[in-house]
Structure formats: structure tokens, C-alpha cells
């Protein structure tokens, strides 16, 4: 029996038709828990509008009835932002039927897409016109552009191209009262006051529903080289990225750090992954160079940089991929870490950032404090080190039960976030606050920043119906 007033249920049915409503408990389940099964909620209904007009009509009807909405894309988010609460009174608004690529404008180097387009499909559409859409992340086969925008997603190419904020020129948004803001401008220059699109990017569905976006395209990559490199320490990684940047400039498009623990999990759980080296090393980086020229001397550059680093002891060993299959195999080792960690029992995710120069000291301090206070926990540190962004994830000790580890989760988190703040860092570099970090943000964000954020929320969504309980 739905918690919704019958007249609202009827109105929503009229707006989206039978294909756009999911009322059945069993059919709703996929929308009510996240990829890791770390968050679970209940909903009065899942509604799946197929156009911006339908989204606007749904939002208007819910606004009039005082019913809260939880926007959802591919449901790959890692902080519970797309999962409703447990009241069973919220409506999940899924954008997965809004899948049109509205316009490709190669001369303007832009593409206009709807919010439900899967990231990988957008990458393919860009490739079809000889362009690159550079956002790239492990969930690209299922996450949506709306979700990427709402979380200001990062991923493995931020080093060269920036995050979703940097890739966006215009947005179309349904506001909390159902009005449509058409900000779909493909302009690289527009100084007519506050840049409203940036309010919605990274707002995690709390200010409105993003229905479409104009995104930047880049020249297609025509050559690339990829290496898997063993290192003695995180400091060696920071030294190496500086060396490679000086040598290769913008051709350095990927630089991903991984601890041995992370790689061990992948070797244990992800089929087809093999250690490229005969011996165990403490740290690894995956380096990628790319260029728009088909014959760019990338291998020579890589060999020069790695050769110098080997001589100085900054690099212990390296393999360079000799084929596209080997490139894919190396990336699979990196991108498989999230999945592999799921097989090791409960885990705690902390996607922190600090200045790149502070990464080694952060790891040293956080490792030491955790090991002193929580013996046996496994630290799974990896990530986008060139952006100063580490996934400093924690898995339970192999021999312990789940419950005692879960009971320590909050204390572990505070140790990590305190160290993050000691280095003037952020408690969320890319996944957002959602429900996971909402409370923590109260401790670790400046009170004035929170006050400004609350006043923006209050002025745009005074009834508090857009994704309540998330972010703020
Ligand atoms: P959802 O999970 O459905 O939603 C995420 C948030 O956005 C929620 O708060 C939701 O309410 C809101 N939202 C969704 N659509 C809209 C919309 N149209 N309008 C308004 N609000 C909306 N993230 C990174 O940044 N970098 C990574 O490298 C990365 N790697 C990942 C690897 C794996 C294996 C997985 C599972 C996730 C990874 N993520 C990463 C996290 C996640 O994929 C991204 O945050 C992604 O951008 C979420 O997109 P989604 O469509 O799944 O959004
Ligand atoms: C990644 O970069 O692989 C994800 O953002 C990290 C994660 O799953 O914790
Ligand atoms: Zn990441």
C-alpha cells in the first residue's frame, strides 16, 4: 500500500504512463540500495519520466503535495546520495529514461545530452565524430551524466582535463517548484553575473533535477602508452609525477597510485589480473601518456623519465604495455580495486584530498595513527595522486567479525579526517557527502561555509523537498 495520497499517485500515472511508474516492492528493490549494499531505504514509488516536461510535471505535482524526491541516475554513487530514507514516504525520481543525445556540434566542440545518458555511451558518441569526452571512471558503463554532474565526478583523467565542473558549459535544470531553467548555452565565455550552473554541479540532487547538459569535447587521442611502475614509497610517486610532468607536459594524462594491499586484493579477486612483476613491491603507479598525433614519441619520453628515476632509486621496476590488450589489462588492475575490496568484507571509504606535496606525510601520519589505535585493520590506499586525491579505504581485519569493525567505523573515520584537516585537505574529493559524510561535514567544514550553503538551499528549496537528509 503506497504512502502517497491517491490523487498524487493518479496524477503521476497520468504524467509518465505505466512504463514510467514502479509501484511493485520487488521491482523497486534495485533503486533502494546502492552498489555496495552499504545503504538501504524504502520508497513510496519510483517514477521514471522520459522528457524534461515530464520531469517538470512530476516535480510540480510532488511539490504541491509536499512529497520529497530523491533523484537517481545509475545508482553507482558511493555515499548513499541516491538512496531514499527508511520512511517509505519519499519518491525516487530515476532519470534513466532520459537518454537522448540532443545535439553534437563538432565546430563548437560540444555535445548536448540528457541526464540519463550513460557515460560510456557519451564517450562513444564523441568518438563517432573524432572527438574525446575525457571523463573516465570505473563505473562508466553504468553511471549517468546527471549523476556525474550532481556529484562533480572526477576519475582518472582529471590530471589533464579536469573534473565534471571543468567539462560543462551549460545545464538544463528542473527547479524544486517545477519550473525549468534553460541554461543550455554552449558558451566558453559568459560573464553575465553569477554562474548558476556551478550551483547545481556537485549539489547531489539537493537543489534541482538536472535534465540535460552541454559538455565540452576534445580532440581524439591517436597515440598512447601505458606503464605499470613499482616504487619504494609515496614520496617516490610525488617525485615521479613532477619529473614526468616536466618532461611530457599535458601528454601526462593518467597517474594512479596503488598500495601493495590494493593490488593484492585485485590479484585475489578479479579474474584475469596478474602481477606484472616477479617480486612484491610496496607501491605502484599506472602512468599513461597520450597525444593527438598518431606518431608521438611517447615511448621515448616514458623511457627517458623512467630511466632517470630508476638511476635515482625512485623507481624499482617498470613494464610498458606492448598492445591494446595489455593496456586494458593494466587499467583493469587499477579499476578493479573497488570491486576487489567488496570481496574482503565490510569496508570504509574515505575519498580525501590534500595538496599533492602532502600525500606522503598524510599517508605516514594516517597509517601510523590507525595502526596504533585499530590493530589489524587493512589500509587500502590508492587513487588519483596527481590530483592529491587518495581513496584511503579501510577493510576489516581478516580474522575479526563484521560487527566489532563496524562499531569502530566512526572512530576510524575521525582519525582519517583529522589527519586530512591537519594537511588542509578535504573530506570528499570526488564522491560527495551524500548521507555518508553529511554529519562529518559539520565537524570538518567551516561554519561559515555551511551557513552559506544552508542559505542557498533555503532560498532555492524552501520546502526542503529535494533529496532531504543528503549533503546538509
Ligand atoms: P547516482 O549514484 O544515481 O547519484 C549520485 C548523486 O547524484 C545522488 O545524490 C543523486 O541524488 C544525484 N543525482 C543523480 N542524477 C541526478 C540528476 N539528474 N539531477 C540531480 N541529481 C542527480 N566517482 C568519481 O568521482 N571518480 C571515480 O573514479 C569513481 N569511480 C568509481 C568506481 C566504481 C566502481 C563505482 C561503483 C563508483 C565510482 N565513482 C567514482 C562514484 C560514482 O560512479 C560517481 O559518483 C558517478 O558520478 C555517479 O553517477 P550515477 O549516475 O550512478 O549517480
Ligand atoms: C576509484 O577511483 O576507483 C573510486 O573512486 C574509488 C572507490 O571505489 O573508493
Ligand atoms: Zn576515484
Automatic annotation (TrEMBL):
Its cofactor is FAD. Residues 39-220 form the FAD-binding PCMH-type domain. It comes from the Bacteria. Pfam families: FAD-oxidase_C, FAD_binding_4. One of its GO terms (molecular function) is FAD binding. Keywords: FAD, Flavoprotein. GO terms for biological process: respiratory electron transport chain. Gene3D superfamilies: 3.30.465.10, 3.30.70.2190, 3.30.70.2740, Uridine Diphospho-n-acetylenolpyruvylglucosamine Reductase, domain 2 (3.30.43.10), Vanillyl-alcohol Oxidase, Chain A, domain 4 (1.10.45.10). Belongs to the FAD-binding oxidoreductase/transferase type 4 family. This is FAD/FMN-containing dehydrogenase. It comes from Phytopseudomonas flavescens. The lineage of its organism: Bacteria, Pseudomonadati, Pseudomonadota, Gammaproteobacteria, Pseudomonadales.
Amino acid at each position: 500500500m503506497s504512502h502517497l495520497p491517491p490523487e498524487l499517485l493518479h496524477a503521476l500515472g497520468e504524467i509518465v504512463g505505466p512504463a514510467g511508474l514502479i509501484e511493485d516492492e520487488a521491482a523497486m528493490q534495485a533503486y533502494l540500495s546502492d552498489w555496495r549494499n552499504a545503504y538501504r531505504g524504502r520508497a513510496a514509488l519510483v517514477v521514471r519520466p522520459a522528457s524534461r516536461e515530464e520531469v517538470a510535471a512530476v516535480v510540480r505535482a510532488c511539490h504541491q503535495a509536499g512529497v520529497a524526491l530523491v533523484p537517481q541516475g545509475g545508482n553507482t554513487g558511493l555515499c548513499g546520495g541516491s538512496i531514499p530514507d527508511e520512511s517509505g514516504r519519499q519518491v525516487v525520481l530515476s532519470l534513466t529514461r532520459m537518454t537522448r543525445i540532443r545535439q553534437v556540434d563538432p565546430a563548437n566542440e560540444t555535445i548536448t545530452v540528457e541526464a540519463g545518458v550513460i557515460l560510456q555511451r557519451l564517450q562513444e558518441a564523441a568518438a563517432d565524430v573524432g572527438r574525446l569526452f575525457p571523463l573516465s571512471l570505473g563505473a562508466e558503463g553504468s553511471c549517468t551524466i546527471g549523476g556525474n554532474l550532481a556529484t562533480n565526478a572526477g576519475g582518472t583523467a582529471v590530471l589533464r582535463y579536469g573534473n565534471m565542473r571543468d567539462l560543462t558549459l551549460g545545464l538544463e535544470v528542473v527547479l524544486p517548484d517545477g519550473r525549468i531553467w534553460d541554461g543550455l548555452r554552449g558558451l566558453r565565455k559568459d560573464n553575465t553575473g553569477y554562474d548558476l550552473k556551478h550551483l547545481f554541479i556537485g549539489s547531489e540532487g539537493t537543489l534541482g533535477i538536472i535534465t540535460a547538459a552541454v559538455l565540452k569535447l576534445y580532440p581524439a587521442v591517436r597515440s598512447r602508452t601505458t606503464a605499470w611502475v613499482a616504487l619504494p614509497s609515496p614520496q617516490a610517486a610525488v617525485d615521479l609525477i613532477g619529473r614526468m610532468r616536466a618532461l611530457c607536459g599535458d601528454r601526462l594524462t593518467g597517474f594512479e597510485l596503488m598500495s601493495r594491499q590494493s593490488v593484492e586484493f585485485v590479484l585475489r579477486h578479479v579474474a584475469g589480473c596478474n602481477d606484472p612483476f616477479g617480486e612484491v613491491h610496496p607501491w605502484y603507479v599506472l602512468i599513461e601518456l597520450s597525444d593527438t598525433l598518431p606518431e608521438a614519441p611517447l615511448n621515448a619520453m616514458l623511457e627517458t623519465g623512467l630511466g632517470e628515476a630508476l638511476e635515482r632509486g625512485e623507481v624499482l621496476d617498470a613494464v610498458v604495455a606492448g598492445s591494446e590488450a595489455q593496456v586494458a589489462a593494466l587499467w583493469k588492475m587499477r579499476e578493479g580495486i573497488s570491486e576487489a575490496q567488496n570481496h574482503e568484507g565490510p569496508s570504509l571509504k574515505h575519498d580525501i584530498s590534500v595538496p599533492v606535496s602532502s600525500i606522503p606525510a598524510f599517508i605516514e601520519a594516517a597509517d601510523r595513527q590507525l595502526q596504533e589505535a585499530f590493530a589489524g585493520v587493512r589500509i587500502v590506499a590508492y587513487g588519483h595522486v596527481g590530483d592529491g586525491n587518495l581513496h584511503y579505504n579501510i577493510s576489516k581485519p581478516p580474522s575479526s567479525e563484521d560487527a566489532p569493525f563496524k562499531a569502530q567505523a566512526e572512530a576510524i573515520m575521525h582519525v582519517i579526517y583529522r589527519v586530512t584537516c591537519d594537511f588542509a585537505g578535504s573530506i570528499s574529493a570526488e564522491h560527495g557527502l551524500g548521507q555518508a559524510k553529511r554529519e562529518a561535514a559539520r565537524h570538518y567544514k567551516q561554519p561559515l561555509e555551511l551557513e552559506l550553503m544552508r542559505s542557498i538551499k533555503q532560498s532555492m528549496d524552501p520546502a526542503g523537498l529535494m533529496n532531504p537528509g543528503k549533503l546538509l
